[in-house]
Amino acid sequence: MARASVAEQRAAWILLSPFVLAAVVFFLYPLVESARLAMTQSFGANATRPVGMSNFSSVLTDPIFWIATQNTVILTAASLLVVLPMSLGLALLLNRPNLKCRALYRLVIFMPQMVGLVFAGFIATVFFAKDTGFVNQLLTQIPGVNTLLHNLFGFDVQFPWLDRHVLLTVFIINLWLWVGFNMVYFLAALQSVDKSLVEAATIDGAGPFQRFKNVTLPAIKSVTAFVFLLAFIGSMQLFELPYIMLNGDPPQNRGVTIVWYLYQQGFEIDDLGMASAVGWILGIVLIGAAFVQFASARHESREARL
Amino acid sequence: MPNSDENTGQHPIPNGLAERLPPWMTGFSLGSWVIFIIGAVSALILFIPRDHIDADMSFWIFSREHEPMYAPIVEDWNATHDTTIKMSMLGMAGLEQRMFNGFRGGLPTADIIEAEYRHAGRAFAGPIDAIGFLDLTDRIKAEGLDESIISTSFTPWTTRGHIFGLPHDVHPVLLAYRADIIEQYGIDVSTIETWDDFAEVFRPIMADNNGDGKPDHYPLAFWPWQDDKVELLLYQGGTGLFDANGQPNINTPENARVLATMVSWCVGPDRIAYDVRDFEDNGNKLKREGLTAAYFTPDWMCGVWKNQFPDMAGKLQIIPLPAFEPGGRRASVWGGTMTGIPKTCENPDEAWEFVKHIYLSPDLAEQLWHAGDIVSPVKAMWDNPMYDEPDEYFRGQRKGRLYIDHIPQVPPRYPSPYNLAARRSVRDAALKLLEYAQDNDVFDKESLIPRAEKVLDEAQRHIKRLVDRNVFLKEEN
Amino acid sequence: MNSRTRRIAAAWPHLILLPLSIVMITPIIWLIAAALKSQTDFFEYLFFPTTENGWMIDFSRLTTQHITNLFGTAGMGRALANSCFLASTVAVLGSFCAAAGGYALARLRFKWAPFVTALVLGLLIIPPPLLLAPTYKLMFNLGLLDSYGAIIFPMIAPAFGVFLFRQATLQSVPRELIEAARVDGMGELTIFMNVALPLLRPMIGAFMIIMFLATWNNFIAPQVFLHSTDKMPLAVAVSRLRGVYYQDYGLQMAAALVSIAPPLLLFLLLQRDFVSGLTSGAVKG
After folding, report:
1. CB distance A244–C140 less than 8 Å?
2. In this predicted model, what pLDDT tens digit does every residue of B273-319 receive, in sequence order?
3. Among C32, C63, C94, which residue terminates a domain?
C-alpha cells in the first residue's frame, strides 16, 4: 500500500476540521467546564462561588432527586420491557410474507415519530385532561366503563391522568411515539436474516418458536443490542415530554425525571453548579452503561470468532 | 446489502438533468433538495430587513389586560416628552424567560419592566448588587411614596431593606357569592364571621332537591391544586410562606390548622367545596350553572366576571372573607404587579418619571377602576368618589368601598427567590393531605391537623434546604 | 393446509395490526378535528361535528378561524420560518460536515486518525444533559446567547453522523474507485465531491431528514439559549400559547397541527430514503 500522501493528509484535515472544531468547542470544552462548574454554586452565568463537593451531597440527599430517579428508572424499565418486545412483535408480524398493506401499516405505526416528542406532549395536555380531555370523554361515553369508574373512583372524579397517574400517561405516550421507531429497526434486521438458515432449521424439524429462538434471535442480536442501548439512553434522559405535558409544574413531583430535576436546578433556581453536578451523576451512570455494552459486544464478537 | 437505487428507493434524477448537473450535486436526493429550498426560503423571510420602531426606551408588560389600558398613556407620553417609549406585551412565560435571561445571561432587557408577584422573588436572589433591578429605595423615600402607598403593597418587592419596584395594586381578596341562589333558600349572609359559620349558613343549598343523588349546589369553589388559593388562605389564617427575613416559616401551627381546614372542605360526604376551575371552559360552564355559590374574589376578579360572564350581571354580591378564627383576618391577597427599572437602563431618571406617571396618575387609577375594578394602592386616591359608586353588576353594591375598607387587613407577603418552589411545596402538601384524607376516610379538620403538620414539615424542610444552601444570601448576613 | 386455513393464517396478523393502527392514528385525527372545531363545539363532539343523524361530518360547522388567528394575532408565521430555517441549516451543515468527516475517517490515511476516532466515540457517550449548564455559560462567554448560531454551531458536530457516514463510506465507496480516481489525477477533495458524494446519496438523504427532524423538535436548546420572541422556533412558540386567563384550545391545537405538518409531509415524500438510511448504519449487511 502506498504511503499516505501529503495531499491525502491535508484533505483529511480540511474535511474534518469543521467537525473537530465544533466538537472541541461545543463538547470537549463544556465537558471539562462542567466538572469545574459542578464544584461551584452559581447565580446565573456570571456569579460563581466555589463550594467543593457540597453540590453532590445536596443532590444525593434531596428527596426530590430520588423521586426523579425512581420515576426515570420505572419509565426506562417500562420502555425496555414493554416497548421493545412490542416493537419486535410488530416487526415479526410485518415481516410475514404476503402480508397485505405492509407499507401502510408501517407508515401508520411509524408516523408518531413525525409528530415529535414536543408536540406529542403538547397534544397530550389537552388529550388527557381530566374533565374535558378526549380520553376521559371517550371513556364516559362507553357504557359500562362509566359504572366501573364510578365504583372504583367515586362518582365525579374522572380518571386523573395528569394529576395522579402521571407516569402511566407518560409511558403511554412514550409507547405511542417509539414503538414504530424500534419496529423499523427490527424489521430491517429481520429482513436481512439469511433465509437459508431458517429453511435449514425448518427442514430439521424446528417449530416456529424454536426457529425464532435459535435462528432468528441470534441473527438480529446486534441490532437488538443497538436498539436496546438507544432506548435505555433515551429513557434515562427523558425530560421534554413530561415537562411539556405538565406545563412545567409537576403535581407533587410526580413525573419529575432526572434531567427535569437538572433543568430545575440550572434554569429555575439558576444554579448552574447544581445542574452540572446532577449532569455528572447521570453521566457516570450512562457512560458506565455504554462501556458495559461495548465490552460485552467485543466479548461476544471475540467469542464468535473462536 | 446491495446498494442499487431500487433497494434504497432513491428517487432517480431524470436522465437529461443528471447529465447537466455537476457530479457532486447528484449526491443529493429529492429530500435533500426539498430541505435546501425550505432553508433558502425561510432565510429570505427571516433576514429581510424590517422597519424597526426606534424608541428611546422599551417597556415590557406581561398582561394582555393591561395593554389597552396603557396604550393611550404611552401614546400621550410620546407626544409630550422627548424620550419615546415602546411598549411590548410578552405574555407571562415570555416575560419571565426574557427577564431572567437578561439578568442572568447578560442579554439586553427593556428599560422598564412590569413584573408579576409569581416570579419577581426570583429576581431578588443573589447578592444585592447582582439584582437586575435598580434599587429604588432612595427615590421612593425621597418622594414620600413609602408613606403615600400602603406598605403591604411594597413588601413583595422589598428584600433586605431595599425596594426594587413600584407597586401597581393592592389586590385585597373578598368573597363573592351567588345572591340569586342564596335568596331561594332564605339565607342571611350577614351572620357569617368564620369559615365554620359559612359552612353552616350555606348548608341548605346542598340539599338534593332535584333527586339526582348529588347536592344541588356546593358552597365553595375551591380545590387544593391551585397554588394561588392555597397561598392566599395560608396568608389569611396562618403565617404565610416566608417571614420578613426571607426565611421560610411554613410549618407553623397556624398554617397546619389552615391546611387541615381547607382539606376538610373537600372531603367527606358533607364536603362543601367543588373543583370549579377559573379560566377554563369547563369551570366557566359550571359557574354559569351555579354549581358553586361562593368564589374567592380579589378586586381584579370582579373585572374578569364582568368580562367573561356578562350574562351573570345582578347575580353576585360580595362579603368579606370568613375568618379562620373569631376576630381573624377577613381579607387576603392574590397576585400583584410591580414595575421596576433594570440596571441596564441608560436613562433611569426618565424611566422613573414614566413609572410614576403610569402608576400614580389619577387618570390611570380611574381607568384601572373602571376597566378592571382594580383598587389603587395610593392612599390619597381612596377618597375618590368613584369607589363609592354602586356597581350594577353586583346588584348595586358599593363594593369599591368594601374593598378599600379591608385593605388594612391585607396580609403582607415577603419575597424569596424560592417563592415559586414554596408555593408549589405547600400546594403539594395540601394535595398530599387531601389524598391522605380520601384514602383513610378522615374528614374533620381537627383529626387532620397532625397529618397537616407532618406534610408542612416536609415542605418546610425542602425550602429550608434551598435557602440554607444559597451562599449568596448568606454573604449578605 | 387447505385454502381456508391458509386464509386464516394470512389474516390473523390483521386482527392485531388493524386495531393497533386505528388506535395509533386516532390522536392525529383528533388533532385535525380539534384544529378545525369552533370554540363551542370543542367539547361537544369527540371528533368532528356531526350532522343530525350523527354519522356524517357537518362541514358547515368547521372553521379555519384558528389557523387564521395563528398567523395573524398569534404571529406563528415567524416561528414557522424560524423552525424551517434552523432545521434546514442544521440539516445541510450537519450532513455535510458529517459526510466529510465520515469519509475522511473511512478512506483517508492521516496521522492522528486514532485521536479523531476516539473523539467521535467519546462524543457518542457523553449524555447531552451533562453539557447543558456549561454550554449555557459558554454561549454567554462567546456572546452567542440569543442568536441562531447558538443552536446551529453545536449541531455541526454530530458524532452519530460521522459514525454513520463512516459505515456508509466503507460499504458504498470502494477503495479501488478512489485509487482509480487518484491515478486519473483527481485531487483528494475533488474525489470526495465527485466520486464519494454521489455514492453516499442514500445516507445523505436519510441523515438530512434525521437532522431536520431533530432540530425541528428540539425544545430545550431554543428555550434555554434563545431570548427574543422573533427568533423562537415553533417548539417553544407553541408552548407559549398557553394563556394565563384564558385557554384557547382551538388555537393551541391548530398550532400543533401546523407544527407537525412539514415533518409529516417531508416524511411522506421521502419514507424510503429515511428508513433505509436510518437502518443501514445499524444493520450489518
Report:
1. no
2. 998 888 877 788 889 988 999 999 999 899 889 988 999 999 999 99
3. C63
Q: Copy the grid coordinates of residue B95.
A: 416575560
Residue that finishes a domain, picked among C14, C30, C63: C63
Q: Facing residues of B273 across strands?
A: B220
Give the tens place of pLDDT for each residue, C71-100. Answer: 877 778 889 999 999 999 999 999 989 999
Cα–Cα distances (Å) from C228 to B95, B102, C107, C232, in that order, read: 10, 11, 44, 7
C55 and C133, same domain (yes or no): no
Question: Of the candidates C43, C104, C260, which has its C-beta nearest A114's C-beta?
Answer: C260
Residue C211 in any domain: the answer is: yes
Residues of C in contact with B90 (CB under 8 A): 229
Q: Are B102 and B342 in contact (CB under 8 A)?
A: yes
- Where in the sequence is the domain holding C14, given as residue range(s)? 3-63
Q: What distance lies between CA B50 and its chain's CA centroid?
A: 35
Buried b (16+ CB within 10 A) or exposed e, A150-180: eeeeeeebbbbbbbbbbbebbbbbbbbbbbb
- Chain A within 8 Å of C140 (Cβ-Cβ)? yes
Task: Give the model's confidence band at B39: pLDDT under 50 very low, under 70 low, under 90 confident, else very high.
Answer: confident
Alpha helices in B185-328 (DSSP H): 195-202, 227-237, 253-264, 281-289, 299-308
Scanning C167-186 for CB atoms below 8 A from B yields 171-172
Cell numbers placing C121: 466515540
Helices (H), B217-290: 227-237, 253-264, 281-289
Contact list in B for residue A45 (CB cut-off 8 A) is 104-106
**B21 vs C: CB within 8 A:** no
Domain for residue A158, yes or no? yes
CA distance B74 to B434: 48
Q: What is the third-level CATH fold of B51-170+336-360?
A: D-Maltodextrin-Binding Protein; domain 2 (3.40.190)
Mapping DSSP to helix (H, G, I), strand (E, B) and coil, where does residue C41 land? coil
Q: C-alpha dihedral over B95, B100, B102, B103, to 10 degrees? A: 140
B interface with A, Cβ–Cβ below 8 Å:
1, 100, 103-106, 122, 125-127, 130, 214, 225, 280-282, 417-418, 420-421, 424, 428, 431-432, 435, 462, 465-466, 469-472
Between residues 169 and 188 of chain C, which touch chain A (CB distance below 8 Å)? 187-188
| Residue B10: predicted pLDDT | 43
ipTM value greater than 0.85: no
- Return all residues near B263 (Cβ < 8 A) that are at least 6 apart: B224, B430, B433, B434, B437, B445, B448, B452
Domains held by chain A: number: 1
At the top level of CATH, which class does the domain B172-334+392-476 belong to?
Answer: alpha beta
* Contact status of A267 with chain C (Cβ, < 8 Å): yes
Contact A112, A120 (CB under 8 A): yes
pLDDT at B222: 94
Distance from CA of C265 to the nearest CA of A (A): 9
Domains in chain C, number? 2
Contact list, A132 vs chain B (CB under 8 Å): 280-282
Question: B184: buried, middle or exposed (CB in 10 Å: 19+, 13-18, 0-12)?
Answer: middle
How many Cβ atoms from other residues are within 10 Å of residue C53's Cβ?
6
Strand B112-116 to strand B337-340: parallel, antiparallel, or no bridges (unpaired)? antiparallel
What element of type H or E holds B337? strand B337-340
Which three cell numbers, joined as nine digits, stand for C6? 391458509
Q: Which of A79-83, B116-120, B258-262, C114-118 bottoms out in mean pLDDT, i.e. has the lowest?
A: B116-120
- Across the range C264-268, mean pLDDT stands at 83
Of B286, B242, B299, which Cα lies nearest the Cα of B415? B242
pLDDT interval class at B11 (50, 70, 90): very low
* CATH of residue A88: 1.10.3720.10
